[in-house]
Amino acid sequence: MSGLDSGAAERRRQFAEEARSERPDLALLCLLLGAEAGPVGPAEAVPVTPGEPVPDPYGIDAAQIELDRLAGLLPYGSRSPAGWASALAELLGERCGFGGSSADYQRLDSSLLQQVLRRRRGLPILLSVVWIEVARRAGAPVYGVALPGHFVVGFGDREHPVLADPFAGGAPLTGQDAELLVTGATGAALEPSMMVPARPLEIVLRILNNIRAWAAARPERTDVALWAVELSLLLPSHPARLRYEHAQLLVQRGEFLRGAAEMEEYAEILAEIEPTAAENIRRKAHAARALLN
């Protein structure tokens, strides 16, 4: 992860620290993740006196303020889980226009919280993050539900939750609807384990996996793939194979020595479990070093 400027290195440090805290802040992690894509555009920045630096170039503070503002628009007073779901759908889905379509899957900014708040469009999981963070600030019993292929939100009793689909503007989901979503995505039946509330770090890793998948379909965007993998590696729990993916990306980007060294480190880890695979990776490391000749 060398080559980062001081600002980027500090954001990475903050991301790693927050990920290892006792109660990780989902919004902050998503905003630090979004900052990896670069500063917000000039037209989106807060107006300042000419010649002065933009005080919040990555939109992190502005996004937190916007989440607070949205939460403040919810009617005050106690309500049932169904009442919370209805209030969020009316505010975020109807009044504010948060939602998604198939076209949003083709855009990187659909996975960046700053941009989702600005555009009010995004992937199901990012729209769910908006719902979770707005509802949480207002005191709602809300949580994410990581259904395979389609992230939604739940309210109230986790054994019998009230479900809503932020991607569809907050449309309510019955148990049968959830079953159909899962069957359509996987061909399998809905399992009780799929309804367990998603923890913040699970949500962040799933967002990073989406970004990696987006970049993998665009070979010219190894820059995006690299930061997505590097952030994934900063999480306290991540698939070990990401270290090999990181090494491959370094080689693709011309950092042959670093890539080869990381391949060899990963091969050492793998050797006792899968010696044949480890030897194959060592050969790839040797080939990467040979590219310097």
Structural class: alpha+beta
How much helix is in the residues? 40-55%
The Cα radius of gyration reads 21 Å
Question: Total number of β-strand segments?
Answer: 5
- Shape descriptor: globular
Beta percentage is 5-15%
Number of helices: 12
Task: Tell me the span between the first and last alpha carbons.
Answer: 24 Å
Mean pLDDT: 91
What does the main sheet amount to? 5 strands, antiparallel
Structurally, the number of domains stands at 2
- Give me the side-by-side strand order of the main sheet: 4-3-2-1-5
Low-pLDDT runs of 5+ residues are none
Domain Protein SirB1 N-terminal: 68-209
Family: Belongs to the UPF0162 family.
Pfam families: TPR_9, Transglut_core2
InterPro entries: SirB1_N
Question: Would you give an account of this structure?
Answer:
This is Protein SirB1 N-terminal domain-containing protein. Belongs to the UPF0162 family. It holds the Pfam family TPR_9. It comes from Streptomyces filamentosus NRRL 15998. InterPro entries: SirB1_N. The protein is of the alpha+beta class. The protein folds into two domains: 182 residues, no CATH class; 52 residues, no CATH class. Helices cover 54% and strands 7% of the residues. The chain contains twelve helices and five strands. Strands 4-3-2-1-5 form a five-stranded antiparallel sheet, sandwiched between helices. The protein is globular, with a radius of gyration of 21 Å. The mean pLDDT is 91.
